């Protein structure tokens, strides 16, 4: 299991870098039309609310942005990949997650990650973390926010909606964390060592294409 998590993380180091380096101007008319055609009017409302949050809340303090984004996505429904996508493991883009209004723990964490990046949170302050949930006795994903390089992270989670410092989440054991810059192997809350991997997983290769605003806006 650990090797699979490390492999997935390694691929996302590449994909996140590609995606976050590309920031074409968003065409809301096309985005709304695409959402209406693929989903429904309720999905259109969610997409508009999502983009309004990003456009209008840029000046908030960082921790207020965390609360806003965490609350926005935690209203969504948890749905297993096999039920939603017919696959054991599928990482939805934020557009897919918002369109359907549901997904599993990876989808919650990824949507929060990208949204906070768009709200101006520096990438080095954010990490996606694979953890072992002792309460559920299963692997789980959360988003961690580091106010400084050496500080204890705050945990954004769809299971426990309250943002808490990692030391208060005794129900979680961190295994692997990563962002668009680095991969960390970690078994202690708030601490870890940098790691590298050349592993690749073909299943994830199309994520950057599916979420690239540049490609999306080029569709007619």
Automatic annotation (TrEMBL):
InterPro entries: Transglutaminase-like_Cys_pept (IPR010319)
Lineage top rank: taxon: Bacteria
The protein, known as: Sulfate adenylyltransferase
């Amino acid at each position: 299991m650990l090797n699979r998590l490390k492999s997935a993380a390694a691929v996302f180091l590449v994909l996140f870098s590609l995606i976050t380096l590309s920031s074409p101007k968003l065409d809301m008319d096309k985005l709304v039309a695409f959402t209406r055609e693929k989903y429904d009017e309720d999905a259109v409302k969610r997409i508009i609310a999502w983009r309004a949050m990003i456009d209008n809340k840029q000046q908030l303090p960082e921790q207020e942005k965390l609360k806003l984004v965490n609350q926005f996505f935690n209203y969504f429904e948890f749905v297993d990949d096999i039920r939603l996508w017919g696959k054991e493991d599928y990482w939805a883009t934020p557009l897919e997650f918002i369109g359907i209004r549901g997904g599993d723990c990876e989808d919650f964490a990824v949507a929060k990650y990208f949204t906070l990046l768009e709200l101006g949170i520096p990438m080095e302050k954010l990490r996606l973390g694979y953890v072992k949930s002792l309460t559920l006795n299963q692997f789980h994903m959360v988003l961690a926010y580091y106010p400084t390089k050496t500080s204890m992270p705050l945990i954004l989670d769809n299971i426990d909606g309250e943002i808490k410092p990692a030391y208060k989440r005794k129900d979680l054991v961190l295994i692997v964390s990563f962002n668009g810059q680095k991969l960390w192997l970690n078994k202690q809350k708030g601490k870890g060592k940098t790691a590298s991997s050349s592993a690749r997983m073909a299943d994830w290769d199309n994520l950057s294409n599916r979420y690239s605003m540049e490609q999306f806006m080029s569709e007619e």
